[in-house]
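Example 3.2
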Amino acid sequence: GGQGVRLCQLRYVNPCLHGGTRPEHVRARPEIFQHAAAEDSGKRKLFLVISSDKGLCGGIHSSVTKATRRAFAEKDKVEEDSPVMVIGDKSKAQLSRQLTKNLTMTFNQIGRDIPTFADAAGVADLILTSEVKYDSIVIVYNKFVSAISYEAGTIEIEPENLLKEARKYTRCPI
């Protein structure tokens, strides 16, 4: 039998309203990914495609979908059965036609308001506890070019255990 796609709807209480950390005080440290690259992460990549649930601008959604399909076409870099998780119903609908067997989890209801750290943490927690096997994560997102143009961007993230084993890994101060 086929595997079902797990649909996750995330709803969070804004931590700012309840004495939590304010979003402007929580910043990602991208340099950890730039300076601690692992030697060889493997070809089984988890693609996290970021889209939205609604919107009339089809080009924005189709650019991340096309970038994901192009990555799967590179057989020497990506395993054919690499898992795909999608944030947003628009790209989910597009990818479910060609990569049905790869879809393992989809998320919706994220970004109805301005996305928060809590939204990202919830997605990350579900991914980490999903038991999906992967060597690295490729985030596929829309990169702003101009008021009328976006292009698909990607960032590859090594799993925590590979980052810690990388020769250039150093702890970043908080």
